[in-house]
Specification:
heterodimer; A: mainly beta; 7-stranded mixed sheet; B: mainly beta; 6-stranded mixed sheet
Amino acid sequence: EAGVAQSPRYKIIEKRQSVAFWCNPISGHATLYWYQQILGQGPKLLIQFQNNGVVDDSQLPKDRFSAERLKGVDSTLKIQPAKLEDSAVYLCASSLAGYNSPLHFGNGTRLTVT
Amino acid sequence: AQSVAQPEDQVNVAEGNPLTVKCTYSVSGNPYLFWYVQYPNRGLQFLLKYITGDNLVKGSYGFEAEFNKSQTSFHLKKPSALVSDSALYFCAVRDMDTNAGKSTFGDGTTLTVKP
């Protein structure tokens, strides 16, 4: 099966600029996640979708981050305006419905904010 | 709040020796536990999981993990390490009963296997 697709792989922007990341999950996976992974730390959940509805966005900085999942398939994550501390790898993952299903991760987007 | 601790930032072993990567967790309900591996410039890959049943679970690439409820631990093990096992390993927990299935990850342990 095709894996989780993410683009771009790398992005460099200046602070206060905006950026968007795209994710295409594995076909048939109802649940989609966006994680932020800062160097030296584990992934931190930003937002979780079940189909096209938000299940958990408690750790999403809503003043600058937004995410949507169109028609319950693809998803985009946007940052506007970016701050230096947003430099991280942004990982998209998907899974089948059910808490015992493992997450399948994309290769991530490495964001550098200068 | 649920949490995961991986007490060792780095584990070094010689090829052919057994390896253990430690993980302890905290959840209010019953846990689902997972191990993932991350190779350089790649996303995380699923290794194995504990849901219920036998406390010793087996996964990919010869890895296994032992669930210990009384010690709230889920240590990753392999009887004989390979150089190709060198990578970053993450433990994750989900609460069966709360938090909408949110996965919480530890900060990772870098495993280095030397020839």
